[in-house]
Amino acid sequence: MMQVNQLVYTAGKRNILNNISFSLAPGKVTVILGPNGAGKSTLLRLLSGELKPSGGTVSWHNRPLHQIPPAQLATQRAVLTQQYAITLPFTCEEVVLMGRYPHFTNQPTADDIAAVKAAMEEMHVTHLSSRPFQTLSGGEQQRVQAARVLAQLWSKRPEAAPGKMLLLDEPTSSMDIQHQQLLLGKARKLAQQRYTVLIVLHDLNLAARYADEIVLLQKGSLLAAGTAAEVLQPATLQQAYGIPLQLIQSVDYPYPILVPGHH
Amino acid sequence: MRRSLTTTTLILLLIASVLFASGMGAMHIPPMQVVSIICNSIGIHLPVDYNEGMAGVLIQIRLPRVCLGVLIGAGLAAAGASLQGLFRNPLADARLIGVSSGASLFAVVTIVAISGIPALAGNHLAKYYLLNAATFTGACLASVVVFRISKAGNKTMTTTMLLAGLGINALCESIIGLITSTANNEELRNITFWLLGSLGGASWGMVLSLLPFILVPICLLPQLSKSLNAFSLGEAEAMHLGINVKRLKTTIIVLATLSVGASVAAAGIIGFVGLIVPHILRGISGSDHRSLLPNSALLGASLLTLADTFSRTIIAPAELPIGIVTALLGTPLFIALLLKQKKAIKSWAS
Questions:
Q1: Please, are residues A30 and A198 in contact by the beta-carbon 8 Å criterion?
Q2: Which residue in A has a C-alpha nearest to residue B346's C-alpha?
Q3: Per the database record, which ranges form the ABC transporter domain (chain A) (predicted)?
Q4: Which of B350, B97, B82, B330 is nearest to B229 (CA)?
Q5: pLDDT at residue B143 above 50?
Q6: Is the minimum CB–CB distance between A134 and chain B shorter than 8 Å?
Q7: If one looks up domain A1-76+165-263 in CATH, what number appears?
């Protein structure tokens, strides 16, 4: 359980985030939406502990996030940032194994090897194992990094390891439609195993398809927060994005489809 | 499996290099005799004949120089590999990014300053430690400055890093030039020695005083291997894997510059060892620092020992400065490695 209470973040004199409060519950996929520059990535970086809040608090399992030692946090929580480039020539398998570093001291255990194998299969990157990471396409790099994050949270008996957390910052930006569904579907599955999942997304239709809860930001403030059905309303979205949006319901697709509307 | 095979091969290569280098020179000493003399001096008598002249040359002249080469080569290569991990860039070499010139500037200033202190005139050990402290400070300052300049957000920029190094090199060299133009004859000789690099000053005293400054980094750096691997993902990404990034950066800078600084104090600026050795090894056994760091130390030791043998035998009785030899050996190899890497990336991409 993560609690965000009256969070404020300023860089220099600029207010990036104002007075944001919400909570993230285990078992739910929460999606952060908002136009460019709304502060989505900054919010995720505050929740991951990379940035320190200028005001307000972020707490994880009732402890202030900054009091938890990074090594301990790394066994419970994985973060996929938008930084994929690696300049030293590591192979993909080595990159995915890095996700297991918080779990072993010198040599990977059998569990770590199993985690790497499972995560690579899950993200369809097993065939890239021995390729140098730098030589992959953007979408492939994103899948390998996603596999690394999944390996970090992998556990032998997932049903006995709840309370872990997954943070993804625009994880599907370079992926094709098949792999977008694959990764977000996996995030859903983790939520069903009582993981806390938070994803920054741009694509409203992916949000409509996979989010339980949505946090909608605009210019650093919380415009709306609630269930997907509550937040994904044409009026609210128009206020956020500045263009009219239309909500279409299809007969054989149970989620709303969002398209730009007419004036 | 392949990794332990690489390490074993490198250990054998180092032993062969040491035996070869000890034997080469005006007086040739065959490997069996080298082994026998060394064993004899530690109390093990082997049934191999040698004359006392050979023993004297080996123990008093050759071995200290070979040991110095082994230590400095190992130190520079391990420092190079870890600096490349810190900068997340395979082009970060102590010489190229200005760390060595920072150290040599401080060395030159120290030489001129202590020549005015009579109490230090006869005390070689005190002089050496003072010089060591100075080169360490210079190397530390230079690496912190270059690291700060080349960091843009979450990345280090190759061009900015190389340009920052260029700037620091130019600055240090011009200040050194300024000092040399006012230096007296004896100071001048010392200063030139620092700028070209040479193992010619080798003695057992120097080897012993250098030993801790190289051994400590070589033993401690491999313990940071996993953290350095994770660091290559990015600073925030390493933090999310539970690594104390601030402490890691400080430790790497202190350990790497400790060995670069001590090497500069003992033998002046020797470039390219820290660049070439990790490059070769990445091609053979990969980028994982768990094998890269110890293997770099081993290969660096062999490479510098052989380069020094070349530098003192090729135009005997005169000597080539070793910095020139490593640059001559290093640059073509480096360019070849770059071309190979470029081709590899191209063939995967197409």
A1: yes
A2: A135
A3: 2-244
A4: B82
A5: yes
A6: yes
A7: 3.40.50.300
Sequence ranges of the domains in chain A = 1-76+165-263, 83-162
Q: What kind and span of H or E run contains B230?
A: helix B225-231
3-state secondary structure of A106: coil
Structure tokens at B277: 């050795």
Interface test with B, best of A52, A83, A88 (most B CBs within 10 A): A88
Using the beta-carbon criterion (under 8 Å), do A87 and B241 form an inter-chain contact? no
Cα–Cα–Cα angle for B22, B24, B27, nearest 5°?
Answer: 100
Q: Cβ B348–A131 below 8 Å, yes or no?
A: yes
Amino acid at A208: A
Q: What are phi and psi of A77, to 5 degrees?
A: -145, 135
- Give contacts of B 62-91 with A, CB under 8 A: 84-85, 88-90
Distance of residue A217 Cα from the nearest chain B Cα, in angstroms = 23
Q: Are A90 and B88 inside 8 Å of each other by CB?
A: no
- For chain B, say whether A152 makes contact (Cβ under 8 Å): yes
- Confidence band (pLDDT; 50, 70, 90) for B350? very low
| Cα-based distances in Å from A259 to A175, B27, B266, B334 | 21, 87, 71, 54
pLDDT tens, position by position, B77-130: 999 999 999 888 787 888 878 888 898 889 888 878 877 776 666 667 777 788
B230 interfaces chain A, CB cutoff of 8 Å? yes
